[in-house]
Structure formats: C-alpha cells, structure tokens
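Hi team, as promised in this morning's meeting, here are the two structures we talked about. I've kept the exact order from the run log so nobody has to guess. The first one is mostly here for context; it's the second one we should focus on when we meet again. Sequence first, then the predicted structure tokens.
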Amino acid sequence: MRKVRIRSQEMETQIGNKAESDKEVHKQQTEPGTEPSTQNKETNPRFNKQNEDTEEVKSQLSVGIEIKDGSNAEKAEELFQKPEIDFDRFFKFIDSSIQGLKEYSLIASALELGVFEALNTPLSARNLAEKLGCDPLLMPYFCEALHSLGFLDRFEEGMDKEEEKAQVVKTDPVAGQEKGKSETGSENTDKEINNGGAVYLVSELSATYLLESSPFSQQHYLAERVRNVERWARLPQILKQGPDIVEKGPFFGEIVHCMAENARCGLLQETIKVVTENIDFTNVKRLLDIGGGHGLYAVAFSKLNKDLQAFVFDLPPVTAETRYFIEKYGASRVDTIQGDFFKDEIGSNYDLIFSSFNPGGKVPSLIPKIAEALNPGGIFVTRQMPDEKMKSNPLLSLDWNLWTFEGVKKGRSGYSFENSVPFNEYIGLLGNYGLEVFRALDMIDGSRIVFARKIT
C-alpha cells in the first residue's frame, strides 16, 4: 500500500513537470507575432470542440495539468482530481491500527504456543519449531518479529558468555525498533532470518512479565485481554443484540488474578507509600478493604503494624481467591468477609476503610454505611479514576458498555454504574455524613486518591 502511494506521488510530480513543460511550449507558440494554424482555428470544428472541453476540464483541475485530449471531459476530470482530505491521515490510521493488531497477535500466539517458556533456555528457530510442532520455515520470521519488539534476545550459537552479551541486540519494546539500527536494517534482518546459527532466548522484558514463574507475570492479565479482543471481534453482533450478560461471581473470581498482577507492577507500592505518608499506622488497629478483591492492599497494610487486624470484604466467589493470596504471603492477621456491600452489613469499629477502584466507589448510597462503620477519628481512603478522563475516552466508554451484569445498568462513561455520580460530586457528599476531606492527590496512573476523616 505504501509503495503504491509513493509511486503515485512520484507520478503526480512527473505529470506536473510535464504539464509545466507543455505550458512553456504553448506559451511560446502563442506569443505575439506567431499565428496559430488557420485550419486548426477556423476550419476544424472538431478541434474547436475538443479545445472547449479541454479548457472546461482545466478550469476545474487543481493539479495544474494541461489536457491534450478533451474527449470524455467528465471522466478526465474525475481521473485527475485529488480528494480534499489528505489521504496520508487515513492511511496512517489504518496502517497503525493493523500494525497494532499484528503485534498483539504475535504476543498472544507466542503465549498460546508456549514460545517464551520454551525459550527460557536458548534454542534456534528450527529447534524451537520442532519442539513446539510448528512450521520450520515460518518460525525464523516469527522469532525475528518477536525480537524486533524486544521480547526475544538473539545471539550466535557457539559463543562464550562474554560474546553472547556483546551479541545480544537490545531493543526498544515501545517503539518496536532496534536502538542504533542501521539504514540497511531490512537487508541485515533478511540475513539474520536465514542464518541457521542464530539462537533465541527470552529477553528481560518477557522474562519479567511473560514467564509464569516470574513474580511479576502478567499471564492472567493477557488472558483477560484476549477475552476482550474476542468480544470486540463480535462488535457487529453485540451492537445488534445488546451487551453481553456476565455473572458477577465468576467474573470477579477470574478478574481478581488479573488485578493482582497489575497491582504488583507498581500500583500497589505507590499506593502504600502515599497512604503511609498521610496516615499514622501506629493508630490503625482495625482495617477494612471494601471490595478488596485480591486483598493485596490489606496484606501489605498488615505488615506495617503487628497489632493491625485487616478484613477484605467482597463477593463469595471473590473471597475464595482472596484466601489464595492471604496464604501465599503468610498474612495471618488478614481475614475475609463475604457479602454484597450494596445489600449486606460491612462490619464496624474500623480505624481505616480503604477502597481502590471499587465498582461501587462512586455510589452515594454506600457513604452512610461507610461512615457508620468507622470509629470517631477513623479515616476513609478512596481511589478512583476522575470522570473527566473517562468521558474524554469514547473507546473506553464503549468497551465498558459492551458487557454488563445481570440486573445491573452501567453508566455512560467507563467504570461507572447507573446509580454512580461523578467522583468530585461523590467526594463533595462525604461531608454530609461527617467525613471531612483533608487531602486529595493525583497518582502517576492518572487516578485520584482522597483522604477523609470521620469528625462526628
């Protein structure tokens, strides 16, 4: 596609140059003292008709081309006209979208085939193909594409350790281009693909986020992304039949692991740091993580005070998964409370109630329940994405509304429900129930965390 467009531009330039040359000749022929052919001008009506058609076409063209054959003037005009909207904008958008789809397919396919786990030890593309039962002719291209995105390292077989370090080409995983790549990179790539001595190994990027054994593995997150892509592939069907209906329990039971993986990659650490900078945890003895899902926040908070007892409140299918994380991190002072916080009591006598991206985190009807459950002087900490950022992202809002829970109506913007209010309005309502906001901070990921103290 791009080659066709480039050649078209070159052709237009050549036509334009030719037109300018023809104009110069025409100018010389019609200068004072030069009489045009009497036959052409007076005795040849066919020539006159063609000339009129040509002039009509020329008057409507924007590319400065002189028409020599005026027959079928309307078709000629259509041929030489360009669209008013710049074509480059359209093709760049389509090309970048397809490029993203290709890169996603590379990673998703590599995970499905077990490429990263297999390349935890170095293998040639041919040996990898044999091990995974794949086409040996395609596998070198597949590996090289993953290498170009920074997910695989490549070196020559038979090198010692120092040579391997020097040979491994570090890549930029964001731009998908090799740092310091030469102008003849495409030729080098062809040679490398056909080089039977090339050996591939998981890069630091894929070893960190794509190996199951890594503490920062994002395999559950990527599995959820695959399900999301499959839903978007059914977009015409959903637009006709309405949103997918999802059961709360199984959904949250699955999504808990995805959210836990995300939290481990910086979100958890940043949040704990900000909270401890604004709250004296020596005074916190009883804590509730409402809608806490994986419970990692409660687990982390419990490590800050040996006298702190923490509870994670969530739906029964979710708390079953919460127990897994509690046991994994040996958090003996963290327990779970099963229930639906819209319907059930959440407990009482808490010194701190924490809420992070809670689906009900902008529903006003929960505020009195939260205020009542806090001790006097207790603190409510809530973290949500500001609504102005949700409303400015139509794709996110559409994605959010492609599915829903049975009997639940969602809000128009992302991560909101029908009975939700804008986050700023929600925060403004806290004072009506004796919760005084004393700090609000914007986080690195664009979310906002708000601290409020119970004063009555």
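And here is the second protein, the one for discussion:
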Amino acid sequence: MSRHKPTIHEMLEKKQKKPGKVDELEKDDFRALNKAAFQVFAPVILGAVIILGVIIAIFTWIYS
C-alpha cells in the first residue's frame, strides 16, 4: 500500500471555502494577533533605530 505524496502544486493550491461558512474571530484573537505582531516587529524596529543612532553618532564624531 503506497501513500500518495502531494505535489508542490497540490500543497500550494488554495483550499475551497465551504459555502455559507463565516470566519469570525473569537474574543481574544485580535489581542493575541497584536501581541504576536508586537513581539516580532518591536525588536526589528528597535534594532533599526539603534543602528541608525550608531551611524549618526559615528558621522557626528568624525565630522565635528
């Protein structure tokens, strides 16, 4: 008995939504999504601000 391995096309194919089904967020889903986004983007933005600050400090130190 061999199992059929799905092809990449089958895996990436969009699944059809059942007619009449409505996707609704639960009570705390929006808060959880915001928390997850903050945990991802806060370190990235903080790192970018720190790098920009270091570059500005280096240029002001060199040209002053």
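Starting points for discussion:
The radius of gyration is 24 Å.
The chain is about 60% helix and 0% strand.
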